[in-house]
Design brief:
The complex is a heterodimer of chains A (794) and B (112).
Chain A: H1 22-106, H2 108-120, E1 128-131, E2 136-139, E3 146-149, H3 162-171, H4 173-183, E4 190-194, E5 202-205, H5 210-217, H6 227-231, H7 235-244, E6 256-258, E7 261-262, E8 269-278, E9 285-294, H8 296-303, E10 312-316, E11 322-325, H9 327-332, E12 338-341, E13 346-349, H10 358-361, E14 372-380, E15 383-393, E16 397-400, E17 405-408, E18 411-417, H11 418-421, H12 423-480, H13 495-515, H14 517-563, H15 567-571, E19 576-583, E20 590-597, E21 602-609, H16 613-633, H17 638-655, E22 662-669, E23 673-677, E24 683-686, E25 692-695, E26 716-720, E27 726-730, H18 732-735, H19 746-756, H20 762-777, E28 786-793
Parallel strand pairs in A: 6-16
Antiparallel strand pairs in A: 1-2, 2-3, 3-5, 4-5, 4-9, 6-8, 7-8, 7-13, 8-9, 10-11, 10-18, 12-13, 14-15, 15-18, 16-17, 19-28, 20-21, 21-22, 22-23, 23-26, 24-25, 24-27, 27-28
Chain B: E1 2-4, E2 8-13, E3 16-23, H1 28-43, E4 48-59, H2 61-75, E5 81-86, H3 91-103, E6 108-111
Parallel strand pairs in B: 3-4, 4-5, 5-6
Antiparallel strand pairs in B: 1-2, 2-3
Classes of the chains: A alpha+beta (794), B alpha/beta (112).
InterPro entries (chain A): Bact_Sigma-Reg (IPR052016), HAMP_dom (IPR003660), PPM-type-like_dom_sf (IPR036457), PPM-type_phosphatase-like_dom (IPR001932)
GO molecular function (chain A): phosphatase activity
Coiled coil (chain A): 514-548
């Protein structure tokens, strides 16, 4: 028989490269292990590289920051030093002039002589000429210095008042030294002398038409009261204060500086340095010498600072006004220029405090003389850009602030974009990042390369390893498709090879069995046939045996029925009403009862032969025959009767080599008396008055057929038996009838049942008792013959 | 020796034979193995054979016949004593066992 090989979903064919194949699993496991290993190693590598790059960046950054800050500090210190030097140079030149002039003041005779001499020389001095338009007197050109006597210092003759004339003489010395001073030292715009308040003439070198210029620029200056109060209010009083209290000097220097202002003549940003002159007794001011310089040198120093590409310097007054910075600085610092008009001179204001950059506007300029480095953020087109701000204060000076003399400390500042400083660092970081990325890329490439190599290797190796298994699987599939010739060849010497060997052996066996199946079937069939014929024969024998046994039983039953007394026999008996009931068990037992009546005597026998079947039946027949014979013979002695019966039966049993015996008892009735003899079950007597007597028959006899002579054991019991008295005989089939629980019916139930029905006829009593027995048995098995004989006196 | 079924058990301890349960065997043939065991003890001629029936609830007539026949066999060998142990609470014993003593007066019957 062949059926097409079908595959259920559970045993789908596993392809060689299916994910469920052993090889795929093997490769997956090894691949996953390698993948994990590589990923771990790669991850650690990348992490280390990244950490290295981070650390390197940090260190380089720190180093760069330190170096940059040190550089900037040195640079700003140097620059501040240079700026201070520039100012100091002007200061010292002015101080030299002032000291010389002071010496002349302290020596009036020499001053007079020098004045007279200079005034007398046309080379150095020219006569005053009154200018009607301006209302002042000024010397003519062609001499080293121009001297102006303001209208309020002229008398009615338009000649200088004596005091002014004296000042003209005193100041003549300037013509002598002024040109040489102008020609040497720091570049100066002009050197000039101003007399004391009561004679504030002005002499300046080189010569210029200064009064005309003043008229043009500062109208009303010629009205007085004096030069000081018009141009520099507060300075004079400041100096006077110093005389009274030298400690009121804001800075330990006699020189007072103006804030930078736009020069009326040149248009340049200029600064004036004033040096006071004292009277000989040092109690009064005697005027001053002053120098005007452009800030060009200072501003060019600041503006030309080169601090990286977009870095710049600035110089700010303590009030935040920036006096010098370049255009980048102005833009970066967010400065707004505003013109400031003051009394006398015009200034310029580009104040840090008004910067559009918050970080700049809030700068503290006067905090310390030390160099300060700050990191700030400036807004660059909406972006917060980090900047490095370095501040350094210049030496303090006395400043005329337009009202009085205060201390002024200018601050030099450097501003550098941190991005620029750290550009190299950023570049380095970028390089490191690039290197890291490169390493990462190499790692990834190496990783995939490794994976490919490993997978190829694993694939190759797994092929070898799983080859045996694949072959086994193929062979098993072939076997499934009923190709029993298949054998596997496994070259390895491992467990798979062992399985292969076993498989081959099994395949061989299957092959053998399959190929020899027909022979085997034939052989088996033959064996079965033989067995069958044996069974048939046995069955036939069994059947004949059964029928024999059945026949035997039939015979036994027949004998039992045959020897029992007929109902008609019983009905004719006077005095005693006798009812008998016998029901054989499935296997006929050996119950016996008989009623013998010879017209006078009634003899009722009851017995139970051991065992069942034909032999028991025959023994019963034997007993019945002997009893009947003895009764017919008229043997009235119950003891002799039993003795003879026993001898006959015993001898017959011995002859027939039977091993059976029986219990047997008789009840003889004659003239109101019953005589009991023989050993059997208890005999029940229910008297007419309802009293019940149970008579044990053990001592009245002995089993029949067991011993040759039982006469020593046989006895009789004579009892009255009157009208309505009832006597009941039974076999153990009644008392030993069991119900499902194994409970026997028992003599007590029998006694009760009979007693309850005692008023009925003998037949009625028998029927009632049997009904009770049967209801007790219920559906349970009937083990033994049931026999009941009821005698009732009529 | 021990013969055991769901209903009964017969076993020997030395020259004592114990019977237990309900013996309702169908005939002499069925009792043959038990008789054989009993005879084999008798064959060894012990001084005293004890039949312990105190736990034998029921014995049918074929069984009683067996005991009677065995008693007759013992009787033929006066040097072998026999003792039968019975129980008063079992009805068939008090009735049937006395017959054994009648068969063989030397039989020692104890019904307790």
């Amino acid at each position: 028989m062949t059926t097409p090989a079908t595959t259920s979903p559970n045993e789908r064919q596993i392809g060689r490269f299916s994910l469920r194949s052993f090889r795929a699993k093997f490769m997956l496991v090894v691949g996953a292990a390698v993948l994990f290993d590589l990923a771990l190693a790669g991850g650690i590598g990348i992490w280390n590289v990244q950490r290295l790059s981070r650390d390197a960046t940090q260190q380089v950054g720190d180093g760069l920051t330190t170096a940059t800050e040190e550089y900037l500090q040195t640079y700003i210190d140097t620059t501040a030093f240079r700026a201070d030097l520039l100012i100091e140079r002007v200061h010292s030149e002015l101080a030299t002039l002032a000291t010389t002039m002071q010496t002349l003041i302290d020596h009036p005779e020499i001053q007079d002589a020098v004045g007279d001499t200079v005034a007398g020389s046309p080379e150095f001095s020219s006569p005053l000429a009154y200018d009607a338009k301006g209302g002042w007197a000024q010397n003519g050109a062609g001499v080293p210095s121009a001297v102006s006597v303001w209208g309020y210092l002229l008398d009615e003759n338009r000649q200088p008042v004596p005091k002014a004339a004296e000042e003209l003489k005193k100041s003549a010395f300037l013509s002598l030294v002024g040109p040489s001073m102008m020609a040497t030292g720091a570049p100066k715009l002009q050197i000039y002398y101003v007399g004391p308040k009561d004679a504030s003439i002005m002499r300046a070198t080189p010569y210029s038409e200064q009064a005309q210029t003043f008229d043009l620029l500062y109208p009303g200056h010629n009205e007085g009261p004096n030069f000081w109060d018009f141009f520099f209010p507060g300075v004079y009083e400041g100096w006077q204060g110093w005389i009274d209290d030298p400690s009121s000097k804001p800075v330990d220097s006699n020189i007072v500086t103006t804030a930078p202002y736009v020069d009326a003549i040149t248009g340049e940003l200029i600064v004036s340095f004033f040096h006071p002159l004292w009277s000989g007794d040092r109690k009064e001011l005697a005027g001053m010498v002053a120098v005007d310089i452009t800030l060009e040198q200072l501003t060019s120093l600041v503006e030309s600072l080169e601090i990286s590409e977009t870095g710049f310097g600035f110089l700010a007054m303590s009030d935040g006004n920036v006096v010098a910075t370049n255009s980048i600085g102005e833009e970066t610092l967010g400065l707004v220029s505003t013109d400031v008009s003051g009394q006398g001179v015009t200034g310029v204001n580009r104040n840090l405090k008004e910067s559009s950059q918050g970080a700049i506007a809030s700068l503290e300029l006067n905090a310390t003389h030390d160099t300060v480095i700050e990191h700030i953020f400036l807004d660059q087109g909406g972006e917060e850009v980090p900047y490095l701000l370095v501040l350094k204060q210049l030496n303090p000076t006395n400043l005329w602030d337009g009202a009085g003399i205060t201390s002024e400390t200018m601050t030099l500042g450097f501003v550098v974009s941190e991005r620029e400083i750290y550009q190299s660092l950023i570049d380095a970081t970028d390089n490191i990042s690039a290197a890291t990325a490169r390493i990462l890329n190499y790692q990834i490439i190496a990783f995939f390369f490794s994976i490919v190599v490993v997978f190829l290797a694993v694939y190759a190796i797994s092929g070898r390893i799983t080859k045996g298994l694949s072959r086994l699987a193929d062979a098993a599939r072939a076997l499934q498709n009923k190709d029993y010739s298949v054998r596997v060849e496994i070259p390895t010497r491992d467990e798979v090879a062992a399985v292969g060997l076993a498989f081959n052996r099994m395949a061989e066996e299957i092959s053998y069995h399959t190929e020899n199946l027909e022979n085997l079937v034939e052989e088996r069939t033959r064996k079965l046939e033989t067995a069958n014929s044996e069974i048939v024969a046995l069955n036939a024998r069994l059947k004949s045996e059964n029928s024999r046994l059945g026949a035997e039983l039939d015979v036994a039953r027949r004998i039992q029925e045959m020897v029992l007394p007929r109902r008609s026999e019983l009905e004719v008996i006077p005095q005693i009403e006798i009812a008998a009931f016998m029901e054989p068990a499935d296997e006929v037992g050996g119950d016996y009862y008989d009623v013998l009546f010879d017209g006078e005597h009634i003899k009722v026998g009851i017995g139970d032969v051991t065992g069942h079947g034909l032999e028991s039946g025959v023994l019963m027949l034997m007993v019945q025959s002997v009893a009947l014979a003895l009764q017919e013979k008229g043997d009235r002695d119950p003891v002799a009767f039993l003795d003879v019966l026993n001898r006959a039966v015993y001898k017959n049993i011995t002859r027939t080599r039977s091993d059976k015996h029986l219990t047997l008892a008789f009840v003889d009735y004659f003239e109101g008396k019953v005589t009991l003899s023989g050993q059997h079950e208890e005999v029940l007597i229910i008297r007419a008055n309802g009293e019940t007597e149970r008579i044990d028959t053990i001592d009245l006899g002995f089993p029949v057929g067991l011993e040759e002579d039982i006469s020593p054991f046989v006895a009789t019991l004579v009892m009255p038996f009157g009208p309505e008295d009832i006597l009941i005989l039974h076999t153990d089939g009644i008392t030993e009838a069991e119900n499902e629980k194994g409970e026997m019916f028992g003599i007590d139930r029998l006694s009760e049942s009979a007693h309850e029905n005692r008023l009925k006829s003998a037949k009625g009593i028998a029927e009632a008792v049997i009904t009770d027995v049967k209801s007790h048995i219920g559906g349970y098995k009937v083990f033994d013959d049931i026999t009941l004989v009821v005698l009732k006196h009529r | 020796m021990e013969i055991s079924t769901n209903d009964y058990r017969v076993w020997t301890e030395g020259s004592t034979i114990h019977y237990e349960g309900t013996m309702r065997l169908s005939g002499t043939d069925a009792y043959a193995p038990i008789l054989e065991a009993m005879n084999s003890i008798l064959a060894s001629k012990p001084e005293l054979i004890t039949l312990d029936l105190t736990s034998l609830e029921f014995l049918n007539s074929s069984g009683i016949n067996l005991l009677a026949k065995f008693t007759i066999e013992i009787r033929k060998q006066p040097e072998v004593g026999v003792r039968v142990l019975g129980s008063k609470s079992i009805p068939w014993q008090s009735k049937s066992l006395r017959n054994l003593q009648r068969l063989h007066p030397a039989l020692e019957l104890t019904i307790s």
